[in-house]
Amino acid sequence: MWLDILMISLWGGVVALDTTAALQIMISRPLVSCSVAGLLLGNVPVGFLMGVLLELIYISELPVGAAKFSEGNVGSTIAAVLAILTLEQVNRPIIVISVCLVLAILLSMLGGYLVEVMRTVNGRIYNKVLGRETLNIKKISKAQLTGVLSAFLLGFSLTLVTTALFASKPLPYLIALIPDVSKEVVRPISGAFLGAGCVFLFNLLKRENKYSWVVLAGLIIGTLYFI
Amino acid sequence: MLGLGFCFCTVPIVKRLYKDEQRCSLFLKRHIDFFNAHPYFASWALGAVAREEEKAFTTGATDTEAIRTFKERMAGPLGVLGDQLFWSRIKPLSAGLGVLLALTIGYSAVIVFIVLYNVPHMYVRVKGLFLGYKNGFSVTSYLSMERFRGFLKALNIASMLVCGLLFMAAAKWSIVHDYSVLFAFIISAGLTFVLLKIGKSINIIMFIISGVGLLTGILFTLLG
User: Fold this and answer.
1) Do B14 and A137 touch (CB under 8 A)?
2) Which residues span the domain enclosing A112?
3) Engineering a disulfide at B35: which of A9, A22, B3, B122 sits with its beta carbon 3.0 to 4.6 angstroms away?
4) pLDDT per position as a tens digit, A182-193
């Protein structure tokens, strides 16, 4: 398990890097990052499901300029990891997935706070470089790599600490305490997340969009095709 | 940090052009200024800056203020264009389509999502770098919103269509799981819409939505 946690923490670091500091090729989006987490831990279906349910929640949280945002990408990845590792110990998928969906929100808030701290540190690094009398390639490269490394460390440490803290004992223990009949009580949470995600997406796309009415065409085609 | 990142990207140029430390320092100081553009479109400015710096080096020009001003003025338009195209359109459209396909065809949706997003992403990055390098300051003529109007219109229509399809695919996914899941899906969608209208934050909305899910479960359990 500890090797798994180390491996997945490295992935958490890559996810944090892709979110803002480097690449931005969207491997950090929950749909991808949770599926990859599932692949690394040998449970693709759960990772994939968590990714699908969480993908649209933070879609309107844009890492623009100095805007505050919840770190939904790393938060979702950790939640998927917790779900997979907990399921290895307690075989109650509906309860585990529902609890981890709610945990994803808390973890994203914590991640957002840490991003603010990281930005403050990066701002200091930048101002220090800016204030120098003379500059050379070495100084620039060092400052740049420090900034990139701090993003990686944020994702790595957040994943490492939270998975090590929760996945080994506390979360499986808590899940085991929940009566099995509760699975019917928590089952609708996945539908609730999906419903909210669809509206977050619609709300983002309809801004400055003169073709909002096309959504009706989509609904009609969807009704004929899916239902 | 984009300012620092931009400066870091100019390192290969300064390595090629300036060997003495003082001129190297002056070059780096010119490019470490605050630069807040969209990360994908920053390559357009980078290409143009590379061309103009090379030109200044070969002509021996000492007044490089024009390059600094150009960069300053480019940041805003590049940022707006990138935000409009990628953050507000291509990213949500790819994500929506990714989830839609995930609910219908399964795992291959992940690959489709990555490819769909990164084709325009890489195109803009690479094309911008070459276009900027080829045209120098004149790259601005390629940046009018008018050039992207048709593409934006297509994106707007496609994204709304995907959104409608996604709602129905998600509804079907919910029915397959349980009627309580479908009920929670509908109630949450409506409630999220209202909460967004009154300006609640995403985190608050999600806590309320989790509560809605639980209440739905309790209701359905009680009703048997």
Assistant:
1) yes
2) 2-179
3) B3
4) 888 899 999 999
